Amino acid sequence: MAAARGARVFLLANREEECAALVASLPGLGYAVTDVSNEAQVHAGVTKAFATMGSIDAVFNVAGLSGRSAGDGPLHTCTSEAWTLMMDVHAKGTFQVCRAVLARWMAETEPRPRSIVNLGSVLARYPQRDYFATNAYAASKGAIEAMTVSAAAYYAPRGIRLNVVTPGLVRTPMSARAQQNPEILSFIKDKQPLYGDLVSADDIARVALFLLSEDAAAITGEIIRADGGWAVSG
Predict the structure, then answer these.
(1) Quick check: is 118 in a domain?
(2) 137 labelled catalytic
(3) 31, 137, 155, 195: which is the annotated catalytic residue?
(4) What's the rounded Cα separation, in Å, for the pair 139 and 160?
C-alpha cells in the first residue's frame, strides 16, 4: 500500500521467498532477511536499509506471531518458552529496530521530521478471557505501548514522532485458528460491530500510513485503537 502511494519501501522480514516475491511485484522495494529478535541481524538489516535507500524517514514495526503453540495462555498455565518467545519477537524485536534506526537519526546534525509506528494489540488493555487468554502475548504488546509512549516524550524535540496502533482481531494468516472457529466468529460479530467480522489488514495499514505521514504531524505518544469497536462493545 505504501509503495502504491509512491513510497520507497525496505522490508525487514524473516521469510526470503515472500520478500523476494514482493520485491519482484513492486519494483523499487528492497529487503533484508531478518529475525527481529536477533540483535546482529537487526543491525545488519537496518544498515542495509540505510545503504540501499540513502535515508529512512518512517518505520512501521509490524512483526509478530502467536504463542499458543509454544504454550501461551492464562498465567498459571503459560510456559516460560511462550513468555520468552513473545517478549523476544514483540517487545525486544520492536525495541531493537527502533534503537537501530533512532541511533542513526540522532547522529544527524540536521534533524528533520521522522515517524515510527509500532503495532500493539487491543488485548494489552482490553482482555478477553474466553477465547483470547494469551497473557504473554498481551504483556509483550503492553511493553510496546509503554516503550513507545516513553520514547515519544524523549524524541519529540527532535521532531521524531512515535505512536502505537492497536488492532482487534485482524484477518491475517496469524488469525487462521479464529477464522476457522464458528464460536469465535459468532463472538467477533458482536465484539467488532463496525465490521461484524475480523478487521481488514488493509484498514490497519491505512491507519499506520496516516500516522507515518505529514498529515499526522501533531500526533505523538498516542495509542490508536483500530479494533472495529472491540474496546467499546462491552
Answers:
(1) yes
(2) yes
(3) 137
(4) 26
Helix (H, G, I), strand (E, B) or coil at 162: strand
Instruction: Give the Cα separation of 204 and 61 in Å (integer).
Output: 13
CATH number of the domain bearing residue 158: 3.40.50.720
148, burial (CB in 10 Å: exposed 0-12, middle 13-18, buried 19+): buried
List, in order, residues 6 or more apart from 21 with CB less than 8 Å away. Answer: none
Domain that holds residue 143: 57-232
Could you give the number of structural domains in the chain? 1
Query: Using one digit for the tens of pLDDT, what is the confidence trace for 114-150?
Result: 999 999 999 999 999 999 999 999 999 999 999 999 9
CA distance 42 to 32: 9
Q: How does the average pLDDT of the chain come out, rounded?
A: 95
CA pair distance 5, 209, nearest whole angstrom: 10
Q: Is the pLDDT assigned to residue 27 strictly greater than 90?
A: no
In contact, 97 and 35? CB cutoff 8 Å = no
